[in-house]
User: Fold these one by one.
Assistant:
Number 1:
Amino acid sequence: MNSTQSCPECGTDWQDGVTCTDHFHQMLFWENEYPEYTYQVHHYLVLCYHLQHPSLYSREMLPGAVRLLGDFLRGVSTEAARSSSRDVLDSGKRDWKITGTPESHGEYEHPVRWTMTAADITADSVENYEHNVRLWAQTTYDTLQASGNAAS
Ligand SMILES: [Zn+2]
């Protein structure tokens, strides 16, 4: 019997029991250990991981997070965006206003099939991390637009 589970949110196969949370923690570990490869794309990591697991956000926060990713990709600086959207980016913050609960959490209006997920980043080397996370950010936003979940 095939017992491989897949993520109910982003659809990634959890090979050998390694879950998306494990991939996220691996990336945070890399960010601690190898800042030279990672510091420029931390905001993309936080946004992409949460956008592909939208129940982590509250219903109110999800559309703002989609917009913020689009802003970053269009070149809005993280400093400018942070001052207006600090809560969306602060992954350590656990505030009822930004964090989803089992009863009320973010979900997309239209179904989404991601072309790239957290597992694709950790499958490659840390030297390619910045490149891969930038690609992840672009494909995540493109997928949201193509599926009708992001206003263009
Ligand atoms: Zn997942």
Number 2:
Amino acid sequence: MLSYRHSFHAGNFADVLKHGVLALLLDALRRKETPFCYIETHAGVGRYDLQGAAAQKTGEWRDGIARLWSAAEPPQAAVPYLEAVRALNGDGKLRFYPGSPRIARHLLRQQDRMVLMELHPADLPLLQQEFSGDRRVAVRHQDGHTGLKAFLPPQEKRGLVLIDPSYEVKDEFDRVVETLQESHRRWPTGIYALWYPILNRASIDRLHRRLRDSGMRKILYAELSLRPDDTPFGMNGSGMLIVNPPWQLDQQLGSLLPWLAHHLDSERRGHHAMEWLVPE
Ligand SMILES: C[S@@+](CC[C@H](N)C(=O)[O-])C[C@H]1O[C@@H](n2cnc3c(N)ncnc32)[C@H](O)[C@@H]1O
């Protein structure tokens, strides 16, 4: 049973980190003219109405994107992300929030394409509708973990896979490691991004340890928390882990993270960090 609906959480502080990093990864792929392929295992619906009932009920976006929307002088590393959000809100008022597929489509060129997987029967038609008529976009109703291997390696031989589950299932931390390892075996040169929630430090230490022992090289991660890791409150923070990050991503994150933390962690209770889990 899938009960998670991203519409309650769209644009919150965790989305902002995820999508800020995602936009930098796609922007880096645009440096070369040759086509790339973007693949997503857990796509959601693509666009979220921040005035809709779900977003209004939690108001999480108010402590996320709303704080950045009007922030003065964002660093260069935040620009690809903020431009993707602005593109959905042409009149200058923040109303719609782009999910990862919309951020990706904003950065896709004519020669690029994307494949989106989504399992929820209610989210699927919304996702299909969002991209109907765009021949660069393929929407699949399938399990992202098992479905991914059929698309690897993509014919373009360049691109990015985003793995962004809802962590509803108890063994999701194990599954993401397996999915990453198997995908990496099929396509060792692809860029992979994995989003993860921080509910306590022990589960993240375990995730990091498993990835450190996986044999994969070039693994970088960035984390942003609003509360100490072990606060028994739910999601205290989140992380984005990148395998095969593009050149200079670490430097870009070095300017993005403190800016995000400055605006999102106004009580200064959390932490932000960026580290190579496994160097080259
Ligand atoms: C965190 S949300 C995705 C948000 C989206 N990536 C974004 O950033 O805008 C996770 C999504 O995965 C879907 N989902 C859950 N289990 C799945 C599975 N096994 N395969 C594919 N999608 C799944 C959920 O319905 C939900 O829409």
